[in-house]
Amino acid sequence: MEDSTMTDVIIVGAGCAGLTAAVYAIRAGLSVLVFEKYMYGGQISVSSEVENYPSIEKISGPDLSNNIYQQAINQGADIRFEEVLSVQLDGTEKTVTTAENTYAAKAVIIANGVQRRTLGCAGEEEFTGRGVSYCATCDGAFFRGKTVAVVGGGNTALEDALFLSNLCEKVYIIHRSEALRGEKVMRDAVLSRANITVLYDTTVQEIRGESKVSSVHVQNSQTDESSVLPVDAVFIAIGLAPDNQIFSALALDSAGYLVADENCTTAIPGVYVAGDNRTKLLRQIITAAADGAVAAFQAANYINVLSD
Length: 308
Prior knowledge:
Layout: E1 2-12, H1 16-27, E2 32-35, H2 61-75, E3 78-80, E4 84-88, E5 94-98, E6 102-110, E7 114-116, H3 124-127, E8 132-133, H4 136-139, E9 147-151, H5 155-165, E10 170-174, H6 184-191, E11 196-199, E12 202-209, E13 213-220, E14 226-230, E15 233-236, E16 240-242, E17 271-273, H7 285-307
Parallel strand pairs: 1-2, 1-6, 2-3, 6-17, 8-15, 9-10, 9-15, 10-11
Antiparallel strand pairs: 4-5, 5-6, 7-16, 12-13, 13-14
């Protein structure tokens, strides 16, 4: 089924970049249709606290996500929770196909963000939703007073561990390297927290349990020593991966990110990339918002030229 209505801009993704793009595009007088596969807010929605967004000293990730979402809705954005299955980006009429329909637009902004990486170890898939989680802020409260493990050593893992340490009796950080990779302020906070223990040079071999997680089998890469930690949950925070396969008409780098510079332009006229899914030095909320604004500005200029 095809929707015969031509929209000015279709935005793929309702994270910070996509929603910011929607606000800027609407303010430029354009009609906007936004598609989101999962939950609006993207990675912000699974952040316990945001402390580095200008003018907001501290806010929860879900609250910030909701604020941006409501702002886009109030401006007039049409946001639909439909998974985008394919796109046709050449020519002056681009089409986006979801599970429900095919839609046409003059310009497309790709802001689909990134996905969380998985461990790939035994038991991970089996116990997902039964003690294995990728969102500490979503599921941490279920394990209040329990013992849990966080896998990873970057900012996300450290943030998760700190969040969980306020709820759980004991938190293990399982990190494959000899030092934590997160920012110094995060490392210092983790190392000063009495109920957090860091296991360095350690990898997860298997997540075990019966009806739910009861332990994790780990191994030290330096000593080859194996051990079993009794835990009630395993929170996996080992980084992010782009999910750009359906945009194969555009250039991808070796890691799978869409190639686009600070102007957010691609090799196809009228197609722009915004947010964590593109090649960039820093992936933060502030840079996603900046991308969204730039991409919308570029789309508006492109459409204005088409109309002349």
